[in-house]
Amino acid sequence: MDTPAFDHTLFAGCAAQIIQHTRELAAKGWTPATAGNFSIRMSPEHAAITISGKDKGRLTEADIMVVDMANRPVATHHRPSAEAALHTHLYRKFPEVGAVLHTHSPNQTIAGLLYASEGRIRLRGYELFKALRGHTTHETEVDLPVVPNSQDMDALTASVDAVLTQPNTWGYLIAGHGLYAWGRDINEARRHLDAFEFMLGCELELRRLGVR
Description:
This protein is α+β, with helices and mostly antiparallel strands. The chain has helices spanning 8-27, 84-93, 106-114, 153-163, 186-208, and strands at residues 37-41, 46-50, 64-68, 99-103, 120-124, 141-147, 171-174, 178-183. 42% of the residues are buried.
């Protein structure tokens, strides 16, 4: 069955939102050497996503493409990056997910390596838990999954699928790679991304001090 045509006006609006956030994240140094991928669900059938190999601080609408939920390009000569499969996996698994942001900050990359053998980072007692949708108190624990890196996207997707049982995990790390964070829309995904980045920075400092 052919994939339905997408709404070009809707695409333009999604592309504008992606460009705004990617420029801000690039300015923070979280997308080095063209790293990172960013997407917004446009409909049950389509997502707008950044193409690979582009400086995320200088994106234009021409650097955003549309894929279907099987990760196939729609009405474009561009090919999606291999990591686009991790975005569409989240959209298929959790229909409420509306945007996915993937960055490579030093905190995210280092934390993924340090905690790879544990398979998670257990976050405790942070006031910033309240930035994560569904959390209302610091008096809890949040596990951020860490999965092993792989160039085999099927294997990597399977590793992610195995640790994600509910959408309100809101993020996971790939060891030595970076963070995937998501939300109902791109602004919520960005809030979750920023919150995880802050808490990871704190965890690394506590570990350096010998507290964790």
